[in-house]
Write a structure and sequence with these properties.
Radius of gyration: 27 Å
Oligomer: single chain
CATH architecture of the largest domain: 2-Layer Sandwich
Distance between the termini: 63 Å
Number of domains: 3
CATH superfamily of the largest domain: Chloramphenicol acetyltransferase-like domain
Length: 424
């Protein structure tokens, strides 16, 4: 009997997924545990393994297309098995719009009419393109270029138009080596875009990650009443402590590692800051999981340093470095980004002196960390050179009042100004 494979929910925030690539085609045998497709979520591109076995009878979401969670992704069954009833039931029940069913079954007059239109469009030459001697770039039925997720990312990073690349993969699919070996040639379109005084622009489809960022942060900003508290911290003691620590070959810690450690210790003393609004209740977390914002091309990811208050500086440093590398390679797993109780966003390394951040749900607070600045400061009644850093705590007023937020910041400040306190 045919089994319906549905779009999986691969993260807690995932509402729809994009099929980055199919590893099987209709008619192929599929074994249980085999990677059926690559699914792009709002956080990463992940391999999707089949739980069932059989022949791939139907693909419900073509490469490059998106579908909501639980939509028909594929149908597995015995070779030659009739699946028209399954598709009709899904359509009658308001199920996912099946882009490939147009080619596999004729259901209604409307569907036939749209098929004829598609055929005419496919047969007609593309007037916008000038005739060239290179092969036409292979595309999916939806008109998207066939390319692996890594090839797409590399092309975007290098500013390469995939239309200009000839794929060497299966079925003409563009893969990493095609991007690495691509040599751009001057073209009339490139010269036109570079023409002086000529207006131009380009539009890109919104990625799953950007959609999720837009939705979650809009909800946070418009539902959580934010207020902000800023303190300036004397960083001279911490600079000296870090210099001593990093003299050892086996220890290399950053200022951000100290920030994570200081915040995690301070959170154990201020439960309201390590809490979240649940509607009818406030959840106070006894554990401390610190989310560290990492910038990637598509937006922000927030991998979580778990039980940060129980870890040493070197372990925190190792965790953060590993997460940053995995985030940029889109290899983070759901367990890496779920469960934060507090978040830190650090833009100091980009020369930002001070900023405010939007709270990362479900946290009640987020700490925005600026850069270290050398400036004249007053110490013991004298003006001397000093190094200071500003941090701003964004608070959800439903959970944290001004005094509680200020108390947390004072504890955090004292930790950085007296680094030995982190070890107590």
């Amino acid at each position: 009997m045919a089994e319906v494979v549905r779009m999986p929910k691969l993260s807690d925030t995932m509402e729809e997924g994009v099929v980055a690539a199919w590893n099987k085609k209709v008619g192929d045998k599929v074994e249980s545990g085999e990677v059926l497709a690559e699914i792009e979520t709002d956080k990463a591109t992940m391999d999707f393994e089949s739980f069932d076995e059989g022949t791939l009878l139907h693909i419900g979401v073509q490469e490059g297309e998106s579908a909501p969670v639980n939509a028909i992704l594929a149908i597995l069954g015995e070779e030659g098995e009739d699946i028209s009833e399954i598709l009709e039931q899904e359509e009658a029940g308001g199920g996912v719009e099946d882009s490939s069913s147009e080619e596999e079954s004729s259901k209604a007059e409307e569907s036939k009419g749209s098929d004829q239109k598609d055929e005419k469009q496919k047969a007609a030459p593309q007037p916008a393109k000038k005739p060239e001697e290179k092969k036409e770039t292979p595309k999916t039925s939806s008109g998207r270029i066939k390319a692996s997720p890594l090839a797409k990312k590399l092309a975007e990073d290098k500013g390469i138009n995939l239309e200009d690349v000839e794929g060497s993969g299966e079925g003409g699919r563009i893969v990493k080596r095609d991007i690495d070996e691509f040599k751009p040639q001057s073209s009339s379109s490139a010269q036109s875009a570079a023409a002086l005084g000529e207006e131009s622009y380009r539009e890109e489809n919104v990625t799953q990650m950007r959609k999720t960022i837009a939705k979650r942060l809009s909800e946070s900003k418009f539902t959580a009443p934010h207020f902000y508290l800023t303190v300036e911290i004397d960083m001279d003691p911490l600079i000296a402590a870090r210099k001593e620590l990093n003299k050892h070959d086996d220890i290399k810690v950053s200022f951000n590692d100290f920030v994570v450690k200081a915040a995690s210790v301070a959170l154990t003393k201020h439960p309201y800051v390590n809490a979240s609004w649940q509607g009818d209740t406030i959840r106070f977390n006894d554990h401390v999981h610190v989310g560290v914002a990492v910038a990637v091309d598509e937006g922000l990811l927030v991998p979580v340093v778990r039980f940060a208050n129980q870890k040493g500086l070197s372990q925190i440093s190792s965790d953060v470095r590993d997460f940053a590398a995995k985030a940029r390679d889109k290899k983070l797993q759901p367990s890496d980004w779920e469960g934060n109780t507090f978040t830190i966003s650090n833009l100091g390394m980009f020369g930002i002196e001070e900023f405010t951040a939007i709270i990362n749900p479900p946290d009640s607070c987020i700490l925005a960390v600026g850069g270290i600045n050398q400036k004249p400061v007053v110490k013991n009644g004298e003006v001397v050179p000093g190094n200071t850093m500003k941090v701003t705590l964004s608070c959800d007023h439903r959970v944290v009042d001004g005094v509680k937020g200020a108390e947390f910041l004072n504890t955090f400040k004292s930790m950085l100004e007296n680094p030995v306190m982190m070890l107590v």
